[in-house]
């Protein structure tokens, strides 16, 4: 399988997105990334996060984008969508959160401040409390309701 096919396979699982490290693992040289962007094959979405330009736009691309933003040094996303964002993903409420809510491990660190649209919670989530989406993770409906009730943010909206 060629580099392009390998990268497409990864990006397809992540709604068209991929990280610089994933592209390098498929055989692309970082020095050639700008060429791919300038040719219109790729778009740079955030530092170290790219998207196949011709990949069809999905309904919620931001779920994958910010999940990839949360990756650790091993390129593994740390964030799990939770609280009001998870309510929305699971269609459990009509609440339209003004921020995107993500739970990250207590030791999660970034060089820069998180984007203002993200509200980060620090907690250790059990594997049983997490479901897989297409390119992102989200807390289970039960864990989501427990988190929201505990925070007291949307108790009147159920």
Task: Tell me what the structure shows.
By secondary structure, this protein is an alpha+beta fold. It folds into two domains: 50 residues, no CATH class; 97 residues, no CATH class. It contains six helices and eight strands, in the order H-E-H-H-E-E-H-E-H-E-E-E-E-H. The strands form three sheets. Strands 1-3-2 form a three-stranded antiparallel beta sheet. A hairpin with a 2-residue loop joins strand 2 and strand 3. The model has no long low-confidence stretch (mean pLDDT 93).
Record the SSE blueprint:
Elements: H1 3-13, E1 17-19, H2 20-25, H3 33-38, E2 42-46, E3 49-52, H4 61-69, E4 80-81, H5 83-89, E5 100-104, E6 118-122, E7 130-132, E8 137-139, H6 141-151
Parallel strand pairs: 5-6
Antiparallel strand pairs: 1-3, 2-3, 4-5, 7-8
Helix pairs in contact: 5-6
